[in-house]
């Protein structure tokens, strides 16, 4: 029931957990992370760019990612499954290409080959969703955590940290970004920027306006909806005409169109039920 009206989120969580377990069972986790010097520059394994976000390589990241996606399901509830799925696919494509490109062209040369590793997992996609959550969902309440246990003073209001009900979501995502830094931090930063660019309409209009087919998220197509709506209207009109015709029938014994008594109506209802 927790995933009610969020089929895309349910598919993401189950797919992420299933793919991560499968990668461990079949011992293929080494195919998903990217080492720029070895995989891209030396062996030209550019296909890794398309699959490195399909799963995580350790159980801690899987747990935090599943909880974060679950907590961010409210974005799908606000947008609808079709727009949400379109956003996931577009941001997934952009965040799959941009981090390896930035790492290869900029960060690796500037760090003399030290910054070379990009860990597996959809952390960039999660941070792109988190950017939408940050902009769309207001906080409900705030609370303060005191930094000391002494007696309260005049400036007690300034001696603590203020959090909101959204802080736990941000902390889980932050933990996810720090698991395998600096590579995971790069992915998180790129994902956040892609999410903000989508929201600010800085991306090409074709990307922000594109939508997945309705049937892909279990929605009926417009033609199908019109067909069912026309059928419903026909049934309603036929029911109304049948009711009008039965009400206009003459009662037996030559009574004409005289209105029936309450007892006769109840008797007719009982007869119809049996």
TrEMBL record:
Cross-referenced Pfam families: DUF1751 (PF08551)
UniProt keywords, alphabetically: Membrane, Transmembrane, Transmembrane helix
Subcellular location: Membrane
Entry keyword Cell inner membrane: no
Chain spans, region Disordered: 227-274
GO cellular component assignments: membrane
TM annotation in the entry: 12-31, 51-72, 84-105, 117-135
InterPro entries linked to this entry: Rhomboid-like_sf, TMEM115/Pdh1/Rbl19
Membrane topology: Multi-pass membrane protein
Principal subcellular localisation of the protein: membrane
GO biological process terms held by the UniProt record: retrograde vesicle-mediated transport, Golgi to endoplasmic reticulum
Taxonomic superkingdom: Eukaryota
Basic and acidic residues bias locations: 227-237
Residue stretches of biased makeup (Low complexity): 238-252
A GO term, aspect molecular function: serine-type endopeptidase activity
PANTHER family named among the record's database cross-references: RHOMBOID-RELATED PROTEIN, UBIQUITIN-ASSOCIATED DOMAIN-CONTAINING PROTEIN 2
Protein name per UniProt: Peptidase S54 rhomboid domain-containing protein
UniProt organism field: Chaetomium strumarium
